[in-house]
């Protein structure tokens, strides 16, 4: 019988996932897959955490849902308190939504409403970075910098502006220090603000560590401090998108802790609910909150499922497990292990150009030529072959093409669960190596021995 589900890739036949056990997903034939990408950097506690399941059951039995125009719930209040106690300085309130794109939409509208309340109605432009991904709803897609994803929808997207990403492997010049590179990028942002007129710019939006579209690209030191200074100089808000990189993925609850900056708005999602419940959130600074609440009194927004009680209860349990089991220490240690294993194995490999990332957020970039960093012909679809070969070997990884400019380039994103053991990391790395080897053969890059 043909499926009535409108699948992502309707021509592809998918196995049926029937169970989860630790870091593995099991299909209906009994085959097991190590989830080395956490789906899309979601399942940070694996697939069978009993404490989270119990918390969800408990909430569903007591009160699954109450509309937020009538009630608040203990679950949402406690989760907001938990997040704000640990959030970067100045962030003071949490707007709960159901996923990443919704969190970005809320952030964009909060930025706009903040300026409307302040009487700065001309501030309407958003500046983001090329090769970024902020989601697929129209606002999020509009600010995203991935040319391929945007192209068919361009006529219906709001105008947005893009500057260079902080992508040291490809864009730092020979002989340029991190400091000079970061300054060059901050200057570029400043130029863009001046070109648009500072009085017309609402916010600069960036992923703290770039995820899906470029493969775990961390900023160089000082980059975000310099960016923050430029934003402050012109009264432009800084929105950090930690939907993929936040909630412990980099070894810090908030990725920007490592960069020593606090944004005005910060979006989180994936690891917040770890896949046990769909949930996202936008953390809002005291200044923005006070301006809106002290102005018109409320944020002119809302969805049916904001602040969903069961989603909040599940997410709170996820955060408690991370803290009680000291999983962020494991994220740091296992992340180091994974990157050093990959760097050792590929030190001389002709087709691996870069291994990067933070914590258990790791990217491997493939190149046709290490010296020139030339990428493979996109028609080879090397990234898709790696995904296929890995999956056949019982390994889920998250490869993507278009790494360099939306068209060219291939990378693999790894985001294993925080509960991985040292042995798991070794198994992941071994299976990935076999998959890369097989994919290079299957695409004709190397010949079968
Ligand atoms: C950095 C970033 N922002 C936003 C999103 C959109 O999140 P969602 O798919 O939950 O709408 C994603 C999803 O991959 C993401 O990685």
Characterise this structure.
This protein is of the alpha/beta class and 449 residues long. The chain has 2 domains: 17-49 and 326-442, Aspartate Aminotransferase, domain 1 (Alpha-Beta Complex), CATH 3.90.1150; 52-324, Type I PLP-dependent aspartate aminotransferase-like (Major domain) (Aspartate Aminotransferase, domain 2, 3-Layer(aba) Sandwich), CATH 3.40.640. 38% of the residues lie in helices and 16% in strands. It has helices spanning 38-41, 50-62, 74-86, 100-117, 138-143, 147-150, 168-171, 178-196, 223-233, 270-273, 286-294, 309-324, 327-345, 382-392, 422-442, and strands spanning 17-21, 24-27, 32-35, 91-97, 125-129, 161-163, 201-207, 237-241, 265-268, 280-285, 352-358, 361-366, 395-396, 398-401, 410-414. 51% of the residues are buried. The structure holds pyridoxal-5'-phosphate. Pyridoxal-5'-phosphate (PLP) binds at residues 40, 99-101, 104, 133-135, 207, 211-212, 241, 243-244, 269.
List the helices and strands and how they pair.
Blueprint: E1 17-21, E2 24-27, E3 32-35, H1 38-41, H2 50-62, H3 74-86, E4 91-97, H4 100-117, E5 125-129, H5 138-143, H6 147-150, E6 161-163, H7 168-171, H8 178-196, E7 201-207, H9 223-233, E8 237-241, E9 265-268, H10 270-273, E10 280-285, H11 286-294, H12 309-324, H13 327-345, E11 352-358, E12 361-366, H14 382-392, E13 395-396, E14 398-401, E15 410-414, H15 422-442
Parallel strand pairs: 3-13, 5-6, 5-7, 7-8, 8-9
Antiparallel strand pairs: 1-2, 2-3, 4-10, 9-10, 11-12, 12-15, 14-15
Helix pairs in contact: 2-12, 3-12, 4-11, 8-9, 13-15, 14-15
The structure holds pyridoxal-5'-phosphate.
């Amino acid at each position: 019988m043909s499926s009535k589900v409108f699948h992502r890739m309707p021509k592809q036949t998918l196995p049926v996932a029937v169970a989860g056990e630790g870091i593995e997903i099991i299909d209906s034939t009994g085959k097991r897959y190590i989830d080395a990408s956490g789906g899309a950097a979601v399942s940070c506690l694996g697939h069978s955490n009993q404490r989270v399941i119990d918390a969800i059951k408990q909430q569903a039995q007591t009160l699954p849902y109450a509309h937020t125009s009538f009630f608040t719930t203990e679950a949402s209040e406690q989760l907001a308190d938990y997040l704000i106690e640990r959030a970067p300085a100045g962030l003071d309130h949490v707007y709960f939504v159901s996923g990443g794109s919704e969190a970005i939409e809320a952030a964009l509208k909060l930025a706009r409403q903040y300026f409307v309340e302040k009487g700065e109605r001309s501030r309407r432009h958003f500046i983001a970075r090329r090769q970024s991904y902020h989601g697929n709803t129209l606002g999020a897609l509009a600010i995203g910098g991935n040319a391929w994803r945007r192209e068919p929808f361009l006529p219906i997207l709001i105008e947005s502006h893009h500057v260079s990403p902080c992508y040291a492997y490809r864009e730092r010049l020979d002989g340029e220090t991190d400091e000079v590179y970061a300054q060059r990028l901050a200057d570029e942002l400043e130029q863009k603000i001046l070109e648009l007129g500072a009085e017309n710019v609402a916010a600069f939006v960036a992923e703290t560590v770039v995820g899906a579209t470029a493969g775990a690209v961390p900023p160089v030191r000082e980059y975000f401090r310099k960016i923050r200074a430029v934003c402050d100089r012109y009264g432009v808000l800084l929105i950090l998108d930690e939907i993929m990189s936040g909630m412990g993925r980099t070894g810090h609850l908030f990725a920007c802790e490592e960069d020593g900056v606090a944004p005005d708005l910060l979006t989180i999602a994936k690891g917040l609910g770890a896949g046990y419940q769909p949930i996202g959130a936008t953390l809002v600074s005291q200044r923005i909150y006070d301006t809106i609440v002290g102005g018109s009194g409320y944020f002119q927004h809302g969805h049916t499922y904001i602040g969903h009680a069961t989603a909040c209860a599940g997410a709170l349990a996820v955060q408690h497990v991370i803290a009680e089991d000291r999983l962020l220490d494991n994220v740091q240690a296992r992340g180091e292990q994974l990157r050093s294993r990959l760097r050792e194995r590929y030190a001389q490999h002709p087709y691996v150009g870069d291994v990067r990332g933070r914590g258990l957020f790791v990217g491997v970039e493939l190149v046709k030529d290490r010296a020139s960093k030339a990428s493979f012909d996109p028609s080879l679809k090397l990234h898709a072959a790696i995904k296929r070969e890995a999956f056949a070997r019982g390994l889920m990884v998250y490869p993507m093409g278009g790494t360099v400019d939306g068209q060219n380039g291939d990378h693999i994103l790894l985001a294993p669960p925080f509960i991985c053991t040292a042995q798991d990391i070794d198994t992941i790395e071994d299976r990935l190596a076999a998959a890369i080897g097989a994919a290079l053969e299957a695409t004709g890059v190397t010949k079968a021995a």
